[in-house]
Design goal:
Elements: H1 3-20, H2 30-52, H3 58-61, H4 69-73, E1 79-83, E2 91-96, E3 99-104, E4 110-115, E5 119-125, H5 128-132, E6 135-142, E7 149-156, H6 158-176
Antiparallel strand pairs: 1-2, 2-3, 3-4, 5-6, 6-7
Helix pairs in contact: 1-2
Length: 184
């Protein structure tokens, strides 16, 4: 179920609960009541996602947008960001200074790796609802023959994660001596 569908379901349940309750809302304008339902449903979505993500260490989620040059210059692979899609338990995204790792599955695990030096283009987008709860999608276009376009869906703070990834790609190219030329 998508975030929009989940939000719609929560809003529907709140409206039904208001109708069944003994609370008198006749004194409220329709706009105020709608704004209250929207606010409550967004807060419920965030609370559900927070509860689902309790098993993740908050310290491991984001190292920071301004990635330290020391982390990128050493010879070991360092985790720059780690997270999961909003309202998902079966997907995990990890960005290191060498690659993007996408792990899927709850009992069985499948992993997909995208080397940072193979990435051609990065984009991120957010719908209006996604902007309200600060999630979005990051599109990655790479030279990978099996799956050249990968979308990291429903990422929290997509602008910050996009910047971490963009800087990591540039540093990986510099580290390995790769250059990228566009044909005119």
């Amino acid at each position: 179920m998508s975030v929009q569908e989940t939000l719609g379901k929560i809003q529907s349940q709140i409206w039904q609960a208001i109708e069944k309750s003994d609370i008198d809302v006749s004194g409220m304008s329709k706009d105020s009541l709608s704004a209250l339902v929207d606010l409550a449903s967004e807060a419920a979505l965030v609370a559900i996602d927070d509860e689902m993500g309790n098993e993740l260490d908050d310290e491991k989620k984001v190292v920071g947008t301004a990635v330290s040059q020391d982390i990128l210059d050493d010879n070991k692979e360092d985790i720059l960001w780690e997270g999961r899609p909003f309202l998902s338990l079966s997907l995990q995204y990890t960005i290191t200074d060498e690659r993007i790792r996408i792990t899927s599955g709850v009992l069985g695990k499948a992993r997909e790796n995208i080397e940072l030096v193979r990435i051609q283009d990065l984009d991120y987008k957010q719908t209006m609802t996604e902007r309200m709860i600060n999630i979005g999608d990051i599109s990655v276009l790479s030279h990978d023959r099996s799956d050249p376009r990968v979308v990291l869906k429903n990422v929290k703070d997509p602008e910050g994660v996009y910047e971490i990834l963009r800087r990591a790609v540039l540093n990986a190219r510099k580290k390995h001596g790769f250059t990228y030329r566009e044909e005119m």
